[in-house]
Fold each of these.
Amino acid sequence: MTGFEIEELRFTPDSVEETRGRLPRFSNWPVVYLIEDGHDIYVGETGSADRRMRQHLKSEQKQHLKEVRIVFDERFNGSACLDLESLLIRLLGGDGKYEVLNRNEGITNQDYFQRSEYNDTFKEIFEELRGRGYFERSIPEIENSDLFKLSPFKALNTEQGIAVLDIMEGLVEDLQHPDVRTIAAIQGDPGTGKTIVGIYLMKLMRDLAVFDPTDEVEGDSMFSDLFVEGNRGLFSDLRIGLVIPQKSLRKSISKVFKKVPALSDAQVLTPYEVAEAEEDFDVIVVDEAHRLTQRGAQAHGTLTARYGEITRRLFGEDDLSINQLDWIRKRSRHTILLLDTAQSVRPMDIEPEVFERVLAETREQKRLYPLDTQMRVKGGKEYLEFARALISDDPPWKIPDLGDYEFELFDDLGAMHQRIRERDAQFGLARLVAGYAWKWRSKGKTGLHDIELDGVALDWNRSDVDWIASKTSLEEVGSIHTVQGYDLNYAGVIIGGDLRIDPETGRLVADRKNYFDRNGKIDNRTRGQTTTDEDLLRYITNVYRVLLTRGMRGTYIYVADPSLRCRIRHLLEHDS
């Protein structure tokens, strides 16, 4: 059985005509092709390269492209070509050498006969294209990058796709009525792909605004019926924005958007920027909405002052009950929230009761979309439930079947750090993370270390933006504020003295004196709210549950409190 071939031709009518006469399969065979000019690239699949090239040559949006590469293989069928097309779009988007011109509605992830055998061929095709200069990095390097992980070129699972389609069909209807205001919510546990859905929605709205009518829309795409001329008019002048409360994740997504032509000028915003914008927005998508804040002392004094000014300007009075979600709803006709209230980690985060009311509102309007399928952690939902129960007063009595997922308790921090180094050398993206149970002494360049245990001295993350990819991150420890919203391959979680078992009651308690996130335990004096020990326990357990769900391939833990360590060890020994 012969292998694949890659045919090269110029993107001109004469070159297409010459190739049609020379290659019989050019007119009637399933193929995958790439059209590029050294900067932009478009990837497609077709049963007739001849017909498809003629269509593309008529497209104004592709007039600047110059070269075509067509991948032929006598084993190709329609399903294999769709799969290869999808793979190349995702890898090109994650590599970053080219700006990918494709819409994201054609990305598929469907199984078919002998798919595993085709996957081997696809890797060979990738390496051949890499050798010809189409990729700068290997597949593992690409898959570990933010460009890949936060890319809009993702294959959605069924529940994600249904949520996106329902929201988009609702927008098509609602945008025709200027006075209608709506709110929708996508709710899911860590790793269910909420951020990906938000990014996908942003790209899909932009694609609808600029799509080329001469381009075929995949007939079996879940979103193909959206690409009609009337919808292009609806979406073409929309003011849309993506709100990310956390600085690190906001910066990372902004970098990704700059590499995607349809999103290069898309607005990635803080809640303050939405509230202070010159014009209202048509659609605002809010990722990590549980990190929006309520009125109180903000991270910086200037933000605290701005908070009151914004509220007065928008609502005519300084109502202390008004929060950042209220701002956004006031400034946006259509608001889409992505949230998990179990990831709220500070007293200034909007109270869960507020989101309960919002979720009830979206449920009543049939605009609430739960996501259940675990997309990040290879241990699946079983691991997620196990990790949640592990940091509770109702611990599991055995470890569920986690398949190949690694979970291990370490008694020596140095040994866990060494395992993280080994996994990083093997897979990349293995990092130490911890609860905020140590002062950040190294921040002032004092020469002092932050975390000293078992003869090991470690410092908190030096960078608060894109820390995971920074050069020194393997030898540092990431906090909740640098890793929330991100994926790792392996996480080494240090559970510090902020969480311990009370020897008298045998129950978990928060140790206030060993919790050093100042903004994580302060009272909200502005609103007369006291952060009780019970509140603090909820924030700290939420922190650890987030940290315990960062690792896609495995999680290692080190526990400072002897009683909690003993409880977890007993669980592991009982299971063995």
Note: The longest strand covers residues 551-559.
Amino acid sequence: MSDLGGLPTMSVVPSAAQFHAHATSTFFTTLLLISFTLLLLFYLRRRQKVNKETSSLRLPPSPPGLPIIGNLHQIGDLPHRSLHQLSLAYGPLLRLQLGSVTTLVVSSPAIARDVLKTNDLSLCSRPDIATWRRYSYGSLEVALSPYSPRWVSARRLLLTHFLSPRPVRGLSAAREEEVRTLMNTVAAAAASGHTVDLSKSLMSLVSCIVCRAVFGKRFAPAGESSMSEIGGVLCLTAEILGGFVAGDYFPWARRWLNAVTGVHGRLERSFKEWDDLFEREIKERERAGTGSSEDGTYASVLMRLLKEEQSNKEGGLTRDAVKAFLWDLMFGGTDTTVTTLQWAMAELVRTPRVLARAQEEVRRVAAGKSYVDEEDLPRLSYLQAIVKEILRLHPAAPLMLPHECQQSCKVAGYDVPAGTRIYINAWSIGRDANLWDKPDEFRPERFEGSSVNYQGQCFELVPFGSGRRICPGILMAEWVIWLTLANLLHGFDWALPAGVRREDLDMSEVFGLVVSKKEPLVLMATPAKLL
């Protein structure tokens, strides 16, 4: 510094720190400009190529989009609702450009039939999504992997050994024991005058049932319905899979985008937790020897199959494939089942008429019993109608897992080029006023005497999908849902906490891989006076 008139002044020559800061700022500004220019050039070139390829095709209606991002800006925090509004304006088959991904959105049962049945083989693949590929050990599991002969074999194995009627029935004792543990936990809260956080209790229940089926143990304190170590891993995974991942919409920049947004790091941490769990359980069974295969758990069955294939040198089932199956079995039905139960109890306490009728049916069928057994469930027709109505009104996955076109075809008279991503908006179909009388109302009676079901042949109710990609765990899910609801309604009278009116119960949603209730469901339980 120099002294001019007694006032200190900065030297016209910058310091090393100033020079470094200026250079850094200039470098990043230049890098940003270069990146944006390259991105724009890539977009214009790709757009020109796409326009040339599709100029002769008959494509579905599409709202105008913006350069580079396409229609992404028109998708809000609740995409199933945003897409529903767009479908009202542009039709039940909607074409969107989400970043660089061409997407179709289906919002009518007739077009859903065209996608899931008529063109099932052409449209039954899955897109290549980085998070999916990681959790599936490089596309070795069933739910998230692209269609291939290996996928067909994997699905057959999953159904035959784990999700067909015989193995599902074999888990009835575990389901009933865990539901009774939940009932004891609720009874303890009721006796002390405390509220019950059903959201947390239901997650504990379902995760314990799944853990017992897969590993033969609960991962939670004995006799308690409390969150286990698995619950945290499940929640984190659902958050990652259900969140917005920029790389999914700009595949050519996926690695860079997932790194700078932190997705890659979170994904690897979550994946490692799963992998460590699976490796620990596999090694435990390897140490135990062949006798462990007789316990009937999913993990032991997989280890037996792995050993048999290694002995026969077939090589179709690898250690990573075993882990991929374990991930499918652990994650596949947990969040969706919990969410369905949560919405069901919320709607029931908001609708006393339905709650009273459901309780009358359950208590009549299970008269003289402390608990409802699985043998009672087929006689609970009104309860089953309630479950159908919940799956219509609150499908756990309102935007079914996306399909990808593997060979060009026509849907509803429009051309669908290979590589197109397709979403079925089950939420929109369930709210269609042309299909359902007063579609926003919770009215289980609409299903009484109706042949409509969710087994994949009625396209006005497709919460589990249809065709080759129908959820293989339907049977397991419905038995857990029926048994849990039946017992909660049989054993307790339910009410909102003091000071909370029915109309004030928060029913807002939070979007993810499944759409769950934004706020926990907290209720008061009073032990029922059973005859």
Note: Residues 1-24 have pLDDT under 50 and may be disordered.
Amino acid sequence: MSLQARILVIDDEVEVGTFFRCLLERKGYRVVVATNGREACRAINAQKFNVAVVDLKLPDSDGLSLLQEIKKVQPDCEVIIMTGYSTTRTAVRAIQLGAYDYIEKPFEDISEVESLIDKALDFAGGAEERKKKLSSAEWSHIATRAGIIVGNSQAMNQLLSVAYKIARKDVNVLIQGETGTGKEVLARFIHAASHRSDHPFIPVNCGALPENLLESELFGHEKGAFTGATGQRRGIFELANHGTLFLDEIGEASLSIQVKLLRVLETGEFMRVGGEKPIKTDVRIIAATNVDLEQAVREKSFREDLFYRLDVVRLYLPPLRERREDIPELVNHFLKELSGQGTGQEIRISPEAMKIMMQYSWPGNVRELLNAIQQAAVLCDGTVILPGHLSSRITGSLNQFPRAGPALLENQPQGSPFLAQLQNMAQAKDYLSGLEDGELSRVFHLLKVLEKNVLEVMSRRGLSCPPPATIEEMEREAINQALVYSRGNISLAARVLGIGRNTLYRKLKEMQGGARNG
């Protein structure tokens, strides 16, 4: 960037304008100072600027409006927002609207201010592809270490750019996203990009522990605090001191736990269970939720004051269906990892199978994608995953298998070989045990298709069909299938169902109670 770069400073405090003029003119930059929105608009319409440093609060305008006006008139001008702590949320919104970064007043480190302006000047005026490379170059190696596969989607690239910038600001973050989108991975990225990266990152699932255990887990306990407390135990807030605490499924925390969390955030102090002495802690909180906390606040199931303490910066992780262009890169990354774990053979995916995966909606997001790739790799008897190796949940019509479709069923007379073969298979107890693992999976999927097609034919003929399952029966069946799938692992079953562990425990108790009463 030329030393004759022009910088526009917009701030109603004369002292701030004077500070920037002295700081930047000695470096050879040309500085124009505006004290209100009107002067700023005249300046940006009169001459070209490389960087604008804009205060969020002005007597006749606001920083966000000026940011949008600058970007409209001079798209290549990079904007740095100046803000106080109380307006951090607005500053992050500014980054999402196109600001280069934000800096808090009063300025504690002058070299940090200079460095930020120098980086913005280097960034200004570049082509979009160059800007993308410059931006990702700062955080790509951190994303790789944290396990994030970025892909090509603009949404993920912008999200990580924002996350990288706020990581260094030491403010609380609330991550919103559907189950399986990778909220903990994003939290680890923020921790790794922060000045706390050399200190602990500790995740805790607020929905996985009963209330009394969660309190002890978070705050620790003194000897004799409750039955079984045979010694003093430090809690997560103590262990995570100077580091980052990730509170997953924060919406599952009870109101009493929420009160205690609020006190820690307000005072920086807590007491162990059964303790009398307050303990200081310096912990950054990153919370995550897949529920609407604002709705929970309206329903009085989540404290409003705690919500605003956590919601200083809010980041939204897009579901996989909104970033389909990233699916090939994710698939190839997972296959590369699987190839290195087994025999060392490289496993690939056929174009036909990839096309099916691109068309699927992925309600379980990245977690479901990984699970699907692992299942397909197990079923694959070679080195190429074909459509036939994919789950029927993904393939839908299962057109890669021979289908027992309506035409086939309708053309079979009573007592046909087809019906006789089905009957023999159902009665032969040892038949299934003699099948290969991959064949068992295919049989399962084909039976599902067969059941659906039989019902369709019966309906067309006006035959009496079995009544559909009730919502309660469907829920019970889903829970039972999740437990079979997870082999009794409650945490995994809850994740598969997209609910909290406590919620699953409660539903299991209700099912047991219903069975006893029945």
Note: The radius of gyration is 29 Å.
Amino acid sequence: MDTISRNHIENRVLPADFSPSQNFYESDRLAAHYWKKYFSPQLSEYLTPKLQWTGAQAAQVMDALSLAADKHPPVLKRRNFYGEDIFEIEFHPAYWQLMDIAVRSDMFRVKWHPKLRAAFQKERHLAGFAPYFLYSMAEGGIPCPLCMTDGAARLIDRFCEEEDKQRLLPHIYTDKLADFYTGAMFLTEKSGGSDVGANLVKAAPEKNNYYRLNGEKWFCSNANAQVIFALARTGTLAEGTRGLSLFLVEPTLPGGGRNPMEVVRLKDKLGVRSMASAEIIMHNTLAKRIGKEGEGFKLMAEMVNLSRLYNAVAATAFARRALVEAYQFACHRSTFGKRLIEHPLAYDKFVELGARYQAVFYITWRAIRALDGADNGNESEAHLARLLIPMVKRYTALEAVYIIRESMEMMGGIGYIEDGVMPKLMRDALVLPIWEGAGNIMILDMLRATAKSKGLEVMVKEMSAAFRQEGEAALPFLHQLDELLKEMKELPEGDENQLVAKHLFERLTQLYTLSLLIEEQSEATPWLAACWNYRHHTLAKPVAMPSVHDAHRLVAWDF
């Protein structure tokens, strides 16, 4: 072979034997260990084959579909050939293939099918979020409709009449795409945005429990949903959220025909482009009131709260995918005579990102377990969830954006190219700090949770026990916790307390994630020992010198 031919063959970005993960479930040592630890033997036996299948789909099939759906976003078809208003939303075939994978993953069936629900009642959120996590590692837009669907199921189950439950829930736990219904939450309006109490859409009573809705909803994610929950005003504007009621809206009327809703346009979004977000005007739209008049915001909060947890799991999944993409690349890319991962500044960065990711992972899944406990009558876990869910929503969203950006940089110019997954991950992740309440709203919610629940008390008790378990090495963190609690008791009155609280909650989040690393440690988790060592030295100083072996341990990924 001549020199020119040989150079042509050897001139590669990555070597010929490079083979990334073929199954995200089997490669993820951290997640697999956690699920094995907290799943009951019965759930593990049932769900493991589903996780293996979903992990393979995410690693081998979904990227191409996700990139196609992103490049060919939904299109609004306002009228048909005869000039009739139809407001149909058309999707690329890749969207439906991705939705089919979601249905077949069992993320809803394991939670809502009556027999499976009864079998796994105490761990339903753990069960549902596991396949959702793997799925979200490969697709960032459809997780929003999936989030809305589970939230809608929660409202149906808790607040709807039995006839509605029997009619709608089977369409959510079905294993066939043709029968599958997705959900939506029509909440935001131009008048207020996050200030839901300023909403203007009005509901006029008709007969029985039915009303007619009139007005515009400004940001309707998953606009093509078959099950929609909307807030509308049955009281005065002066009553704020107390004047809002909750309504079930279905696009098809009970007797057939289209329920009148005008889709003004689809949002041209920076990311999550595979799914449809719209501006919708309701013109005498038929809706069924759920719960009592004036209780709408209180009931909708159940869906919002669950959505925030979905936001955190999606953030965790996006961050994980970015990290392992960069890690797999760095383990094979040759630069300056050795692999990229072997350069000190490179492995130092992977140590940092691995430690940040572990904190994100463990606090997110602790929140999931808290919600499972709360749903099963554990009062302590309910108090914890009240504080932890807004905390984890804010923290994971910010960390995901950082981890993805830094992982992209580790790959250099190729990480910026739209043929790969990194740019889409970055665009999709930028919605996470905004969706389901921006970071400042989470600070306000944590303030309310601290005042109105025992969440802080429960969290502090858990943290103190973990730090004492670690012994002398954790004494600085016990002192930091004591100082933090003292400052929280001295919060100033008025608006100034928001500014002070923001910084206090950020410190509380860091200490809580550190305590979780202690709680989770075992002989089988070398990544946790490495993470504790890194974060301990980072927070307590002096900083320990990392090694390439620390990077491998902290990423905890086989491929």
Note: Residues 24-179 form one domain.
